[in-house]
What we know:
The complex is a heterodimer. Chain A is α/β, with parallel strands linked by helices. Chain A is built from 12 helices and 11 strands. Chain A has helices spanning 23-38, 59-66, 82-95, 140-155, 159-173, 187-192, 220-225, 255-266, 283-292, 301-305, 324-328, 336-347; strands at 5-12, 47-49, 72-74, 101-108, 195-197, 200-201, 211-218, 231-241, 275-278, 362-370, 376-385. In chain A, a hairpin with a 5-residue loop joins strand 10 (362-370) and strand 11. In chain A, helix 5 (159-173) packs across helix 9. Chain A is globular, with a radius of gyration of 19 Å. Chain B is mostly beta strands. Helix content of chain B is 11%, strand content 33%. In chain B, a hairpin with an 8-residue loop joins strand 7 and strand 8 (141-146). The longest helix of chain B is centred in the N-terminal third of the chain and has 9 residues, at 3-11. The radius of gyration of chain B is 18 Å and the shape is globular. Mean pLDDT of chain B is 89; it is low at 1-17. The A-B interface holds A 118-119, 125-126, 128-139, 141-142, 145-150, 153, 194-200, 243-248, 250, 373 and B 24-30, 32-33, 37, 55-59, 61, 65-66, 83-92, 96, 98-100, 103, 106-112, 123, 134, 141.
Amino acid sequence: MNQPAYIVGAFEHPTRKAPDKSVAQLHAEAAKGALDDAGLKLEDVDGYLCAGDAPGLGPLNMIDYMGIQPRFIDSTDTGGSSYLVHVAHAAQAIAAGHCNIALITLAGRPRSEGSSGLVPRNWGENLPDAPFETPFTSVTVNSYAMAAMRHMHEFGTTLEQMAWVKVAASHHAQHNPHAMLRNVVTVQEVMDSPMISDPLRRLDCCVVSDGGGALVVTRPEIARSLKRPLVKVIGAGEAVKGPAGGYFDLTFSAGRWSGQRAFEQAGVKPSDIQYASIYDSFTITVIMQLEDLGFCAKGEGGRFVADGNLISGVGKLPFNTDGGGLCNNHPANRGGITKVIEAVRQLRDEAHPAVQVPNCHLALAHGTGGTLSGRHAGATLIMERE
Amino acid sequence: MSSDQNQISRHQPATSSEQKPISYTAPRILGDQAGFWEAAKSGRFLIKRCKDCGKAHWFPRALCPFCMGETDWEEASGRGEIYTYSITRKALPQPFVIAYVTLDEGPRMMTHIVDCEPESVRIGQRVKLVFKPTEGDGPPLPMFCPASD
Lengths: 386, 149
């Protein structure tokens, strides 16, 4: 980026179940945490970004609730990848002089509200695709399952290989006191967990958790005046992929396009990346995104993740060292912000010592929002420790 | 069948074919898609094709998603091949096979594979259209069952 922006505040709400809190409260608590982390005050905020998890009209309700007066707002909603898009948009707004300090928040209570990946979402009455999809009980899990089934068919990806993604996440989650699932699991335990939607079993699926997170993005001069390690955004990409009039290939995601844009902008290549936060709504999501981002060839993702290759200190590409959505947290059914937060921890040398990547100075965070075999958005960020 | 076998079968979970059929929600009928559902009521399976570029698409739109040309209805063969599928076991009381089928006309569409054992479904399998009723006075939904061709 010509005028890079810096992530100076990052906060993951510690709660995983919040029956007695409101969604707006969780947003505000996350915002306070991120501003405290940055060493900034509420009145410093002049940019605000949120997505569809924010109540009501998003920015209008949250700006009033929190008491901020931004001159730049953005409520782009690409599902769980929104917050990676927000970091990129904040950086662009800062570079264009529209704001100096941008706050991004996410929060939700799907666990308390009884949400499930097995229930069709209601997106309103005017969706043109819904009449041809909703009656077929098209839900989150079978959308990802159909992509997994095609991947297995074309490339020979196995159930054991998918299980390795969960095993790696669980190895990391054991060190995270806030993680929902802290037990280390084996490939066999994943294999033995109940089938939900073939080929995805219960342990191939991420957790449903209440919680939230927030990020603060600012310009170089302000970042250098603060006391936190400097995490610079050097590349970003966003892309949308859908059924495209009925002519689509389910073996790749929008990450193929967003990743290429981010790497081009950053001027680095996948083999340079020391740590990767990869959206893990399901185990297959990780395998496909690793291929799409260029960490391995298309079709090689299953072999790439096997045998602990994603485990920090063991494999070649440490991923989701907080335990990810598979074991730690998936607040508001949207995992994008926690992907950025753990990458920031790694670049600041603030991850748990058991999973910290030594001398981590280049990290990637990638999100997939929406449904993998339906309409989804990929968003990629590449960040550097300065 | 011997009495021993009867005893075993009573203790086994019912297969999908013995379970209560799925009650399908009627689709919401949107303006530019009404022609599809009207034809479905009389057992005809229509797709849209562009008058300008000549390409068929799914789901039906008033304007072509490839060139924004005007589109026309045409009766499709109702034949195709399974591109991918998943037996969803936990969303409804009974398991069902959700799938994308590649129509012989080109586009892929979401559907259910029905009138067969879920475990027998395979990628690449040839299938043919069968309309299944929906709740109330709703139009039938386009689904597919195994075909011999």
